[in-house]
Design brief:
Largest sheet of chain A: none
CATH superfamily of the domain at 36-131 and 198-283 in chain B: P-loop containing nucleotide triphosphate hydrolases
CATH architecture of chain A: Up-down Bundle
Oligomer: heterodimer
Largest interface: A-B, 14 and 14 residues
Strand content of chain B: 15-25%
Strand order of the largest sheet of chain B: 6-7-8-3-9-10
CATH class of chain A: Mainly Alpha
Radius of gyration of chain A: 19 Å
Distance between the termini of chain A: 47 Å
Strand content of chain A: under 5%
Largest sheet of chain B: 6 strands, mixed
CATH class of the domain at 36-131 and 198-283 in chain B: Alpha Beta
CATH superfamily of chain A: Phosphate transport system protein phou homolog 2, domain 2
Radius of gyration of chain B: 19 Å
Shape of chain A: elongated
CATH topology of chain A: Methane Monooxygenase Hydroxylase, Chain G, domain 1
Order of helices and strands of chain A: HHHHHH
Chain lengths: 221, 288
């Protein structure tokens, strides 16, 4: 067995990616919590902490560049590094979506919610489940599991549509709800993007394993 | 085989389409649109009673660069030497199977091996200029061949093609041994070009050169591939990845087992998504 040092660095790279994934997951959970509980301080923490996610992304990209420049990776090694480069961007953008949700929470401010949040937390669980399973598939190089993640996106899209219609009904019935209902559609949109970016990660797993680039299932949005 | 005309231009002008770009169906033959310059069919090479290469069937596309890679002792150079019958200069070496050049049996009874080596030239690992002037090195082959044309012009053209002319035009009568290693290697390429080959075989042509001279040789190979078919043996995987159009990976199970062709294909496939685990392990540096 040769290239022990390189293998170790590839492993570290993947660990860093998982750490970034975990930071993003926490940011999403906090942002939704802040919305549910009307906790503006928590929302501000999410906005404030997004910079750490950005830093982590750049640090991972630096590692990738270093490995590309110094190790001349080939074949699956090369595909792993390219996939990490793509995935780190997707994760960082998911962090921005969490920040977007937190900003909505701040905008709603002290106003009471126009309706109890039921579908939005459900959508959050689904989206974060997709993210976790996509990263698990990444770790285990499991293209079958990755393909299943992509198939889950339909459920998210359906839920997104349902939330949109419901909020539209609120707006039609009572124009005073228009502002907050619009904000809540933004939240649903951010969650939909998080799920969609999870499918991007899953597609990278398929690329690592098979070398094929393909869009598996396509989002309606 | 007919006497090759001694001029600098390749004797056959082929229409070479662009390289396939890789979005063809999985099972499509990536070489379907290529003209095949060389082909081996179930080639075996023996040194005495030892089988050095076994079951090699591969094609070399015309005016492309084909790289042969593999660990030491896998028979890369042996395979290369089969392409211009250099192996038979070694005592006890013989082949079984077929080697075809433009569809004709290179080892047929009526084929003159010297003639073969004019049409299929070779450049070696260590630059080996003759202890003569730069001019005489390039003019050597054509003179032996009874060149009746303008020798000065031929020497200039050959040196230009080898990207050496500008560096040596003012000292053509100086000894070739005064040149740097990289220049000597390009001189050897010019010398090979002067007898108007169709194929140039290169056995580790840059392994004795510094990085800059290496890159010059690689640029030169790509320039030459517009007119010539090039087969290169290299230990340098990055070099194969940089310059080749097609790559063949040979390996041996060791302990004197014969070299075998594991995988052959467009270099993009070999270096980004090889089909065989052994290729994957070798090119990612996990064995070999």
């Amino acid at each position: 067995m040769t290239r022990i040092g390189f293998d170790h660095e590839l492993k570290q790279l993947q660990d860093e990616l998982l750490a970034l994934g975990s930071m993003v997951e926490k940011a999403v959970i906090k942002s939704i919590d802040s919305l549910k509980r009307r906790d503006l301080a928590l929302a501000r923490t999410v906005v404030e902490e997004d910079k750490f996610i950005n830093h982590k992304r750049f640090a991972i990209e630096e590692r990738c560049l270093k490995l590309l420049a110094t190790q001349q990776p080939m074949a699956q090694d090369l595909r792993i590094i390219v996939a990490v480069l793509h995935t780190t961007v997707d994760l960082e953008r998911m962090g921005d979506h969490a920040e977007g949700i937190a900003r909505v929470s701040i905008r709603i401010g002290d106003d009471p919610l126009i309706k109890p949040l039921i579908d939005i937390p459900r959508m959050t669980d689904l989206a974060l489940g997709m993210l976790r399973r996509a990263l698990d598939a990444f770790t285990h190089r499991d293209s079958a599991a990755a393909t299943r993640v992509c198939q889950e996106d339909d459920e998210i899209d359906a839920l997104h549509e349902q939330i949109y219609r419901e909020l539209l009904t609120y707006m039609l019935q009572d124009p005073r709800t228009i502002q907050q209902a619009t904000y809540l559609t933004w939240v649903a949109h951010n969650l939909e993007r998080i799920a969609d970016r999870s499918t991007n990660i899953a597609e990278q797993v398929v690329f690592i394993v098979t070398g094929k680039r393909e869009e598996i299932g396509s989002s309606k949005y | 085989m007919a006497q090759a005309p001694v001029n600098i231009r390749p004797s056959k002008h082929l229409e070479v389409p662009p390289m396939p770009i890789g979005d063809e169906p999985e099972n499509a033959d990536p070489m379907a649109s290529e003209t095949i310059a060389l082909e081996t069919k179930s080639l075996q090479v023996f040194y005495g009673s030892r089988l050095a290469l076994d079951g090699i069937s591969m094609k070399v596309a015309a005016r492309r660069i084909t790289a042969i890679i593999g660990p030491s002792g896998c028979g890369k150079s042996t395979l290369l030497r089969c392409f211009n019958r250099m192996n038979e200069l070694l005592q006890g070496a013989r082949i079984a199977g077929e080697v075809l050049f433009m569809g004709e049996d290179l080892y047929a009874r009526d084929v003159d091996p010297t003639e073969v080596r004019y049409r299929i030239g070779m450049v070696f690992q260590k630059p080996n200029p003759f202890p003569k002037s730069i001019y005489d090195n390039v003019a050597f082959g054509p003179r032996i061949n009874g060149n009746k044309g303008n020798l000065d012009e031929l020497v200039e053209q050959s040196l230009r093609r080898a990207a050496l002319w500008d560096e040596v035009k003012d000292r053509l009568k100086k000894s070739a041994l005064e040149l740097s290693g990289g220049q000597q290697q390009r001189l050897c390429i010019a010398r090979a070009l002067a007898v108007a080959p169709e194929v140039i075989l290169m056995d580790e042509p840059a392994s004795a050169l510094d990085p800059l001279a290496t890159l010059k040789i690689e640029d030169l190979m790509q320039e030459l591939a517009k007119d010539y078919t090039i087969v290169i043996v290299t230990h340098n995987m990055q070099q194969a990845a940089r310059v080749s159009d097609y790559t063949a990976f040979l390996t041996t199970e060791g302990g004197g087992a014969p070299g075998k062709l594991v995988e052959f294909g467009p270099k993009d496939v070999i270096f980004t998504n090889p089909r065989d685990q052994r290729t994957q392990d070798y090119i990612t540096g996990r064995f070999g």
